[in-house]
Amino acid sequence: MLRSLKLLFVLLVRSVRSRRDLLLENLALRQQLAVLKQRRPKPRIAPSDKMFWVVLRRVWPGWKAALILVQPETVARWHRAGFKLYWTWLSHHRNRAGRKCVRKELRQLIFRMVAENPTWGAPRIHGELKMLGFDISERSVLRWMRKVPRNPESARRWAAFLSNHREAIAAMDFFTFGVLYCFFVISHDRRRILHCNVTKHPTSAWVVQQLREAFPYDSARSYLIFDRGTQFNSEVIDTVKSFGIKPKRTSYRSPWQNGVAERWAGNCRRDLLDHVIVLNERHLKRLINEYVRYYHEDRTHLALAKGTPAGREAMSNAEASGRVIAIPRLGGLHHRYDLAA
């Protein structure tokens, strides 16, 4: 009786199911039967069989009911593996997007043009390449110009010049603090500040007057190093030459060539200006003058073997039990330490 009811229920279910589901179930069972009929000790599932179940999983919601050979999780794993293989193949055969690669020969030609024409910019070099028939953008030329190998020989020659002539070299530069411009002239031998001043309007006439105050009478150095700022125009250069000084302008974007001046400007910022609120031009000038006195008399320098520009004398035979006093400098931002009398 129970078996008859079960058979009747199966017939009822099959009668209400769609013809499409019946066809797909029949196809799934036949495929598994074909796998089991293979003449091997153990049935093997071929890649075509895996592809069949991956496709059937996508088109038939009731595929799990007809699956006998493997678990449904195995079919899902086959699907993920096939998806991974597809994208691996696609990434290896896809056309490359983006800018075209610049050939090595063209890069070498750009490097050669930069070396042979130091004053040329990217538009000029791009124009020459265009005339030669090369298809390359100006932005690509600029990008490769920034990667030109530097010649270390010129840097070594400049360093040797600075070292051999430091007693005869001075440098001048500006650094800004808000709307104010700080001008200074520094000597290379003892790192002494020969002159400094502050202004809101750094014209060339103002710079000329500062140079007259920095080099009175016959105290001019043999060389004066400065950058390519707009304040240092032909009028300033003519004034420098009238003092018997040979002007030495640094290269474009090469602050390291005026390293002594750049280092002093950085020290002034870190030691003083980063810790104060400047009220006006007169206030900044007073602070700079106080810093110059501290810089000359108290602050030690690595370039001077831990000495000072003014020649501060080191104590001898100091005892650990001796009393050391602190003398504030720059309003207490820094201190000088001496042995108590």
Report on this model:
With 341 residues, the protein is an alpha/beta fold. Among the domains are: 24-86; 111-145, no CATH class; 156-274, Ribonuclease H-like superfamily/Ribonuclease H (Nucleotidyltransferase, domain 5, 2-Layer Sandwich). It is built from 12 helices and 7 strands. It has helices at 2-16, 19-36, 47-59, 72-93, 104-116, 122-131, 138-145, 152-164, 204-214, 234-242, 259-271, 281-297; strands spanning 169-177, 180-187, 193-199, 223-226, 246-249, 324-329, 334-339. Strand 6 and strand 7 (334-339) form a beta hairpin. The radius of gyration is 41 Å and the shape is elongated.
Produce a short descriptive summary.
The chain contains twelve helices and seven strands. It has 341 residues and is an alpha/beta fold.
Offer a few descriptive terms.
48% helix; five-stranded mixed beta sheet; elongated; two-stranded antiparallel sheet; alpha/beta; 341 residues; Nucleotidyltransferase, domain 5; 7 strands
Specify the CATH class of the domain at 156-274.
Answer: Alpha Beta
CATH architectural label of the domain at 156-274: 2-Layer Sandwich
Number of helices: 12
Mean pLDDT: 84
CATH topology category name of the domain at 156-274: Nucleotidyltransferase, domain 5
